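Example 9 (inverse folding). The structure is encoded as follows.
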């Protein structure tokens, strides 16, 4: 079987494995209809993109049945909201108490004017491009923003462990829950897990989550986005539970060759007594057969985390590799009193990794050259809020070009992306963002290792990228400490650092790592290896060669870089030269090309008006540049590949030489112009065959030979003018779950249906059955909006990213351009239940915090004064929890202050007091607005008059001598 056939088989199996999860929802017929990709080709006039696919994207591995998505129901405010200036004793005193956050962090803050947004959300993508903004961030101002969300918890959740998980917030964030600060997060790339159990409210007593995001703060020199740009989850667990990231199960091969899975479960217990529990870990092979199961017992103390460990033996597991990413399932159950109370399912893989100082990287004891790309986390149109399905697509683009490794530079990536890397067979260099050994930052490093140390894809921990202290004793000491922190959590993977200087200094970071990462510095590989023959090394970053997709003539004044791979950055080298230096040196473990995809920001070699990068093997949309075909021909061996560049539309250049290049892995290439052989070259896969051909319109064709036999052809043809638009979806079917997303490629074609590579036309888009969430065309100088419904084709292409709706009806996309035939395409939306998610809850103004006067023998005035500085003579009480008034007598006054939300201020509303015990009167601002006749508990509804400002609510209650009077239920303002 050829490697290609094997790959096809693997991807089919992979699909079926994923399809199985989806199968329940889709039915077997729909799953069986799914097909694997067709061949790719850039033959004459064809679209330079993969053929259409019909498979649904795999859903992220469901690992945790206790989690529900909380991506909807968020209200957003762009800009900061300064905290009020607090004055006076009463306000000062109260604002300093738990639950009493002020300003927009207050539970009662009026967010009725804030629009609702869906997560993932990157507000910076909608910001204008401004010359006075930071070039590194793509000339977009990021600034500050606030999010608020109401959350209703079921009364049955009382007693359970509750947690909110923020996948990632760009950049610095403060999080409040029910008016108390519950987290500060000082990185845009770490997740935040917030235990809300003690502060939670239940039933109609609503909870409030508030996040203030400071995206003015930066951690990078690339576009970082802004806001809640990854998923948010609500987690509900039993009182005894498996902690988040609490399973450590990283397979180990013993000295004799036998494998084991050592499983450690970190458990928690919020109960008041210790809990006797059993852990049951079961390993299941890819065919669903149980391989091993074991149990271990322990007692979890109250409020103290505890580890329970066991080891599963596995004789001869199928190994995980980049070509065959075999995943096993590890199910860990927490059993208490005979009942499973928590459960986690992980996908793990069996593989060994080793870096050798002489022979480079070895996967499963086989040498494997790392053919990697560095990538930032943004995409055209959506910024850093890249939906899971779009990530899946991006990774598939990398896989298709033969890339086997990714360095998510220079920060932690979303867990869903790593799920896909495990599944698709990528090696991951996991990189820490902040080089800092103070406790907050060490906690970020620990979080990263703890989260990802079970993943077969992750092979390396990188503690930094290009730190100026790398050649100093301080840098060395810092890395020594960080390496120790990593090893304490995971001793199996090497620690590295991406160095661009200092590696020859007397004391430097290379002395504190297991593997030295070289950023650029190609001319130092041999010297360093000579001086350090026992230290393994890798190119953690190389290349940085500029290309504008589809451009073949450099015009620096217009900020256009030709795609011939001839103009690298001063510190970089061409794709060809970089790969040659690495490929020819077995001691260099491999390459991480800067970059796989273009990204917003860092538009080197230019600044304004360029706004996104020129480094990518693909552009911002994932459209291939020449470097894509180049690397594919260098990185994929067996399948014959041949792509001829550039396009053949050069009107006005007749007779002038045009540089032609063939990107190929065959032995010999013969070139024909309009049927006449005009050249033949033996292929040097480092430099690739190229010619200067006097331009004549028509057909330029290359034929590739192996062993004298024709194995591949590629042609470019001079096209006519564009007459029509064309839409090419990636998939013909999508999941109608409100989450699935796919990019549609838009191009223009001539009268013969050939792709017109020079078309630069305005196009308008309209979708039904789905929502357009982003637009792009890969032009690094474009200032067009990336959201909306119109965009120019750039060098023949544009991209529309559409999110599926939730109705199982066709999704249709129509594209139009004046003077061209429009196009419409339809894809099926297959009924798919959405993932478990937390429903939106309308924000309601709750009035839960009251002061309660002492008891009076006679009816007091409702306006009886409580001094602003008196924190002692009236009780602090919460609605819903009656406390008897202190002293003798049936009467008491309950008082609260509230500023209604805008609709009530404008139109008036109602104050609803549930479960009021006692006979009495309700007064607002000195006016009686309602009465209650009986003593028995009852609901009182009174009008809340319109008008601005704070209201003083006084409830005058008379008890009946046997039962304490008070507010036995919640109090809220109805709009
Ligand atoms: C490197 C750096 C990258 C990027 C690149 C551009 O020095 O690590 O983040 O800036 O240069 O060539």
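The amino acid assigned to each position is listed next.
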């Amino acid at each position: 079987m050829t490697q290609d056939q094997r790959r096809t088989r693997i991807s089919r199996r992979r699909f079926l494995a994923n399809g199985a999860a989806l199968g329940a929802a889709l039915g077997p017929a729909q799953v069986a209809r799914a097909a694997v990709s067709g061949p790719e080709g850039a033959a004459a006039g064809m679209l330079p993109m993969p053929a259409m696919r019909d498979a649904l994207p795999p859903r992220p591995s469901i690992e945790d049945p206790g989690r529900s998505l909380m991506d909807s129901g968020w209200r957003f405010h762009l800009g900061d909201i300064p905290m009020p200036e607090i004055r006076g004793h009463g306000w000062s005193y109260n604002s300093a108490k738990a639950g009493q956050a002020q300003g927009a962090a207050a539970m009662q803050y009026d967010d009725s004017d804030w629009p609702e947004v869906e997560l993932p959300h990157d507000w910076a993508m909608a910001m204008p491009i401004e010359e006075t903004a930071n070039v590194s961030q793509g000339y977009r101002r990021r600034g500050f923003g606030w999010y608020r969300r109401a959350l209703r918890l079921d009364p049955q959740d009382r007693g359970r462990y509750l947690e909110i998980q923020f996948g990632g917030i760009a950049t610095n964030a403060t999080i409040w829950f029910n008016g108390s600060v519950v987290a500060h997060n000082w990185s845009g790339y770490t997740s935040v897990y917030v235990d809300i159990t003690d502060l939670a409210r239940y039933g109609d007593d609503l909870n409030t989550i508030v996040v203030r995001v400071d995206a003015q703060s930066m951690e990078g020199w690339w576009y970082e986005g802004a806001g809640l740009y990854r998923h948010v989850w609500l987690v509900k667990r039993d009182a005894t539970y498996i902690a988040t990231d609490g399973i450590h199960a990283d397979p180990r091969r013993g000295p004799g060759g036998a494998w084991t899975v050592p499983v450690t479960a970190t458990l928690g217990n919020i109960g008041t007594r210790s809990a006797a529990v059993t852990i049951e870990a079961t390993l299941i092979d890819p065919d669903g057969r149980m391989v091993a199961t074991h149990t271990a017992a322990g007692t979890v103390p109250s409020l103290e985390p505890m580890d329970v460990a066991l080891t599963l033996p596995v004789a001869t597991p199928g190994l995980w590799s980049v070509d065959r990413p075999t995943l096993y399932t590890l199910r860990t159950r927490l059993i208490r009193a005979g009942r499973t109370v928590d459960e986690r399912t992980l996908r793990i893989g069996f593989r060994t990794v080793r870096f050798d100082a002489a022979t480079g990287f070895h996967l499963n004891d086989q040498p494997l050259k790392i053919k990697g790309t560095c990538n930032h986390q943004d995409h055209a149109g959506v910024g850093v809020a890249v939906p899971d399905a779009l990530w899946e697509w991006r990774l598939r683009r990398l896989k298709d070009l033969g890339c086997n490794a990714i360095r998510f530079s220079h920060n932690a990536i979303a867990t869903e992306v790593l799920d896909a890397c495990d599944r698709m067979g990528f090696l991951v260099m996991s990189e820490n963002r902040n080089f800092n050994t103070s406790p907050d930052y060490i906690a970020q490093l620990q979080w990263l290792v703890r989260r990802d140390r079970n993943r077969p894809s992750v092979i390396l921990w990188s503690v930094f990228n290009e730190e100026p202290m790398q050649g100093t004793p301080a840098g060395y000491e810092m890395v020594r400490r960080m390496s120790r922190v990593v090893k304490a959590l995971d001793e199996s993977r090497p620690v590295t650092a991406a160095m661009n200087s200092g590696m020859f200094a007397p004391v430097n970071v290379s002395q504190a790592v297991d593997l030295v990462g070289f950023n650029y510095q190609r001319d130092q590989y041999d010297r360093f290896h000579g001086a350090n023959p026992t230290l393994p090394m890798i190119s953690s970053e190389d290349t940085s060669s500029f290309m504008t997709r589809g451009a073949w003539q450099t015009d620096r004044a217009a900020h256009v870089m030709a795609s011939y791979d001839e103009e690298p950055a001063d510190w970089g080298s061409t794709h060809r030269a970089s790969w040659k230096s690495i490929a020819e040196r077995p001691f260099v473990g491999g390459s991480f090309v800067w970059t796989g995809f273009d990204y917003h920001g860092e538009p080197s070699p230019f600044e304004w008006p360029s706004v996104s990068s020129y480094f990518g093997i693909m552009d911002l949309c994932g459209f291939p540049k020449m470097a894509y075909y180049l690397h594919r021909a260098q990185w994929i061996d067996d399948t014959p590949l041949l792509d001829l560049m550039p396009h053949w539309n050069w009107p006005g250049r007749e007779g002038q030489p045009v540089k032609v290049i063939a990107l190929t892995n065959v032995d010999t290439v013969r070139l024909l112009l309009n049927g006449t052989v005009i050249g033949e070259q033996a292929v040097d896969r480092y430099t690739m065959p190229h010619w200067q051909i006097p331009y004549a319109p028509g057909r330029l064709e290359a034929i590739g030979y192996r062993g004298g036999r024709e194995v591949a052809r590629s042609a470019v043809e001079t096209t006519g003018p564009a007459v029509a638009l064309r839409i090419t979806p990636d998939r013909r079917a999508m999941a109608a779950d409100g989450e699935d997303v796919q990019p549609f490629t838009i191009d223009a074609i001539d009268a013969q249906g050939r792709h017109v590579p020079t078309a630069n036309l305005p196009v308008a888009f309209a979708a039904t059955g789905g929502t357009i969430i982003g637009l792009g065309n890969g032009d690094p100088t474009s200032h067009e909006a990336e959201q909306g419904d119109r965009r120019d084709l750039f060098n023949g292409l544009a991209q529309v990213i559409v999110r599926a709706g939730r109705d199982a009806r066709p999704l249709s996309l129509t594209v139009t351009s004046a003077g061209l035939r429009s196009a419409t395409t339809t894809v099926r939306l297959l009924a798919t239940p959405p993932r478990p998610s937390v429903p939106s809850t309308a924000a309601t103004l709750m009035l839960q915090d009251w002061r309660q006067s002492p008891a009076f023998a006679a009816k007091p005035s409702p306006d009886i004064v409580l001094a602003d500085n008196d924190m002692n003579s009236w009780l602090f009480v919460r609605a819903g929890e009656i406390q008897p008034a202190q002293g003798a007598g049936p009467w008491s006054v309950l008082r609260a202050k509230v500023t209604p939300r805008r609709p009530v201020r404008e139109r008036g509303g109602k104050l609803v007091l549930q479960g009021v015990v006692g006979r009495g009167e309700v007064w607002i601002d000195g006016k009686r607005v309602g009465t209650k006749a009986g003593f028995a508990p009852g609901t009182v509804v009174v009008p809340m008059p319109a008008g601005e400002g704070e209201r003083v609510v006084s409830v005058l209650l008379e008890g009946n001598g046997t039962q304490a009077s008070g507010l036995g239920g919640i109090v809220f303002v109805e709009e």
